[in-house]
Amino acid sequence: MLPLRVLVVDDHRLFRQGLIGLMKTRRDIVEVVGEASSGREAIRLTALLKPNLVLMDISMPDGDGIEATACICANFPGVSVVILTASESDEDLYRAVQLGAQGYLLKHLDADQLFEALSSVERGEAAVTAETASRLLKCVARRPVEPDEGEEALTVRESDVLCLVATGASNQAIADHLHISVNTAKCHIRNILDKLHLENRTQAANYAMNRGLMSPRKTEHKPMRIYADTENE
């Protein structure tokens, strides 16, 4: 598998250079194709360099990371954006995910967590820690998914599964959380995609966030593994 082509976006030069130096130690996972110091420059270089993934800071001059994320996600559908920030604001987290970011990471994470998160993006999963996923669930109100015209209503269990898909949970994590088998989790996801006329998990996650993600029903469960395991995927 080819390494991810990454554009690093941060207005602090020292942090940017340190991050690029770290990434050069794992050329099997990532290849840094460019760096930018502002949101506007990030948009320009995304068009020019065509990265697979943009690691985006939030607070920057000349167009912040949230605005740049919205623009990149809207205009470059093949590019994933992962927020890498010091901001622990729930509002920033919710806005970033709602606008299409595929992950939200805090700068105090360690190198192994960072590379694990980037690998999860390569697998089409969300790059979030368990703590961030928990915060995301608390950011939004619980309410049922009301179908649009031509869509079938989801069952309560399917709504729970959709909620967990929106957090980036793997099939195994969903199964653990809801005390069901992995095959049953997969079956629920297929039914959700069919009922909502969607093609993949990413579209399902975006659908849930755009409609107002609800927390799954309370149940005794094991801790959710957000960085998905490779087995049973």
Provide an overview of this structure.
With 233 residues, the chain is of the alpha/beta class. It has two domains: 4-127, 3-Layer(aba) Sandwich (Rossmann fold), CATH 3.40.50.2300; 139-211, Winged helix-like DNA-binding domain superfamily/Winged helix DNA-binding domain (Arc Repressor Mutant, subunit A). The protein is 47% helix and 12% strand. The protein contains ten helices and five strands. Strands 2-1-3-4-5 form a five-stranded parallel β-sheet, sandwiched between helices. Mean pLDDT is 82; it is low at 214-233.
**The CATH homology group name of the largest domain:** Response regulator
Tell me the overall shape. Answer: globular
Helix content: 40-55%
State the CATH architecture of the largest domain: 3-Layer(aba) Sandwich
Question: Which stretches of 5+ consecutive residues score pLDDT under 50?
Answer: 214-233
| Largest sheet geometry | 5 strands, parallel
Query: SS-based structural class?
Result: alpha/beta
| Order of strands, widest sheet | 2-1-3-4-5
Beginning-to-end CA distance, first to last residue: 17 Å
Report Rg.
17 Å
As for the number of domains, it is 2
CATH level 1 class label of the largest domain: Alpha Beta
SSE arrangement, N to C: EHEHEHEHEHHHHHH
User: Got a strand count?
Assistant: 5
CATH topology of the largest domain: Rossmann fold
Strand fraction band? 5-15%
Number of helices: 10
